[in-house]
Design brief:
The protein is 36% helix and 19% strand. The protein contains 6 helices and 7 strands; from the N terminus they run βαβαβαβαβαββα. It has helices spanning 17-29, 41-51, 67-76, 96-105, 117-129, 160-163; strands spanning 9-13, 34-38, 55-59, 87-91, 109-112, 134-137, 140-143. The strands form 2 sheets. Strands 2-1-3-4-5 form a 5-stranded parallel beta sheet, sandwiched between helices. Strands 6-7 form a two-stranded antiparallel sheet. Helix 2 runs parallel beside helix 3 (67-76). The two termini are 33 Å apart.
């Protein structure tokens, strides 16, 4: 399925200039309508407030503000223009504890370096075609961290829709 990205605005937050230019170049070849860039999470958040992009692509390791801190700022700051903007975190780390940390910060998707143009296009298409519900509770605001329903799960259900059967498959 081909996507028309011409109406899309994407902010690329990456501290390494060659990588920032490479990602922007890939987005240009995908015909993304508006591409904004920032050199770190602090500048990235200012761009978020200024341009309110449709998607944010951010590197994990940046100074003075990294991609995780940027995501938390977007998700929790009441001045954020869109607390539900999809955030795709780009990183060289793929260990499960890193993925969990990113997920718990409110990251929408995770993209491990090195990645292809096709990998990036798939992540962008995924956040557009399969948006996740957002959870707002005392210690978390962000996309639903559950990726799938496990029919073999035997533990306690905590969410009202789980208790009522709305998210469980009926046999």
């Amino acid at each position: 399925m081909a996507f028309d990205f011409r109406k899309l605005s994407i902010l690329v937050v990456e501290d390494t200039a060659p990588m920032r230019k490479l990602i922007a170049s890939v987005l240009e070849t995908m015909d993304v309508g508006l591409i904004y860039t920032a050199e770190n999470g602090q500048e990235g958040y200012e761009q978020v407030k200024k341009f309110n992009p449709d998607i944010v692509i951010a590197d994990w390791h940046m100074e003075p503000v990294n991609g995780i801190e940027l995501t938390r700022e977007i998700r929790t700051n009441t001045l954020s223009p869109n607390r539900m903007v999809p955030v795709i975190l780009v990183t060289g780390y793929s260990a499960m504890n890193r993925v969990a940390e990113a997920r718990d910060a409110g990251v929408t998707e995770f993209l491990v370096k090195p990645f292809s143009a096709n990998d990036l296009a798939k992540r962008i298409a995924y956040v557009i075609t399969k948006p996740r519900d957002f959870i707002d509770c005392a210690d978390y605001f962000g996309p639903d961290r559950r990726r799938r329903n496990n029919p073999d799960y035997k533990g306690p259900f905590k969410r009202e829709e789980d208790k009522s059967g709305a998210n469980t498959k009926q046999a």
